[in-house]
Amino acid sequence: MTSRFIDKVKVYLKAGDGGRGCVSFRREKYVPRGGPNGGDGGDGGDIVFKVDSNLNTLYDFRYNPHLRAPNGRPGMGDNRSGKKGETLVVLVPPGTTIIDSETGEVIADLTEIGQEAIAARGGKGGRGNQHFATPRNRAPRISEPGTPGEERTVILELRSIADVGLVGFPNAGKSTLLRAISSATPEVAPYPFTTLTPHLGVVDVPGSGGQKFVVADIPGLIVGASEGKGLGREFLRHIERTSVLLYVIDAAGFDGDPVQDFRDVRNEVFLYSEAMRKKRSLVALNKVDLIPSREELDLLIEALEDEAKTPVIPISGQEKTGIQELIRSLFTVLSEIETTF
Ligand SMILES: Nc1nc2c(ncn2[C@@H]2O[C@H](COP(=O)(O)OP(=O)(O)O)[C@@H](O)[C@H]2O)c(=O)[nH]1
Ligand SMILES: [Mg+2]
User: Fold this and answer.
1) In terms of domains, do 104 and 45 share one?
2) Which residues of the chain have pLDDT under 70?
3) Is the model's pTM score more than 0.70?
4) How far is CA 20 from CA 68, 72, 143, 218, 256, in A?
């Protein structure tokens, strides 16, 4: 496993073709030859990308790299137009950039929930023969074919900040842990959300033949963050773009109740979006140097594991204990997550 900052998939798009216009003439009793009444072809369907907050990877595109919108139906007699091809709406996670694979042109940068962009336009339906009658030619046998729908290959890019995101209330010890766990500060590609700057650290995985992953410490999580308190929503947007969450919980607790502390943190994260619930997570029970007895610590770990349903690793960022176990556990989870490349 190597760290990746960018998910990338290539997707082939074919918008719907316009339907052919119709050649047809009125047929009435006692009228040997009625006027032209061929309807128009329907327009082909567009392909539209739309941001959905429940998504956070481009993974599904790997299995579905060909997207087609339906063609418009041909026109019919009696001046009836052909049915339009329906727009194909393709959901993508926030932060997806759509790039034309041939020209490199950025077609759209989709950051806001619900934001849409047309990536391939459907063809126009052709006109039926009703439009072509002239005084000299009252019975035109011509109609237009529809124009073809746009066809292009695009690259979808989703920038993620880091492999692991630290989640915890102020003072839980995130900054201290980041210093204890990482050996270097990586270069970051610029990304669209800039008010909060995540602190990043590269973690070397011992005994892995040089494997590394990147951890992000993003300040700003407080109770009420998901409702927009403080820089909360921005924090959560950042954290959404990491693969694994590491909850950092102060063993001494806010009010001496680390389990409640964990519930509060997780609640803020889950309130933000459905995608957060699906993310893998681990719990680092920090500052265990402050816990007086082994028994007390074991009870606390058990209670937290019960609540979190995920492994709890006791550490002290300050004394640098439990750090290797934590790195190994995180690496195991990261290796289990399938990457899009
Ligand atoms: N006893 C103890 N104190 C710690 C530990 N980790 C951090 N601290 C202290 O907790 C306070 C908050 O730490 P910091 O890393 O700034 O927390 P952050 O707000 O989550 O980034 C600081 O005074 C740290 O020295 C630890 O493992 N044990
Ligand atoms: Mg800090």
Assistant:
1) yes
2) 1-6, 31-32, 185-197, 220, 230-234, 254, 338-341
3) no
4) 19, 8, 8, 56, 73
Q: Which residues contact 89 (CB under 8 A, 6 or more apart)?
A: 48, 50, 116
* Whether residues 19 and 136 fall in one domain: yes
Number of the ligand closest to the Cα of 166: 1
Instruction: Compute the chain's Rg from CA coordinates.
Output: 29
Query: Is 14 within the bounds of a domain?
Result: yes
Total residues belonging to the chain: 341
Q: Give the position, in ligand 1's atom list, of the atom nearest the Cα of 315.
A: 27
- For residue 173 and ligand 1, the question of a CB distance below 6 A is answered with yes
Using one digit for the tens of pLDDT, what is the confidence trace for 81-130? 999 999 999 999 888 999 999 999 999 999 888 999 999 999 999 999 99
Question: Angle at Cα 195 formed by Cα 198 and Cα 4, nearest 5°?
Answer: 35
CATH number of the domain where residue 36 is located? 2.70.210.12
Residue to mutate (ligand 1; options 167, 169, 176, 239; most atoms within 8 A of CB)? 176
Please tell me if the CB atom of residue 72 comes closer than 6 angstroms to any atom of ligand 1.
no
Residue at 341 is within a domain: no
Q: Please name the residues in contact with 256: beta carbons below 8 A apart, sequence gap of 6 or more.
A: none
Residue closest via CA to ligand 1's atom 24 equals 173
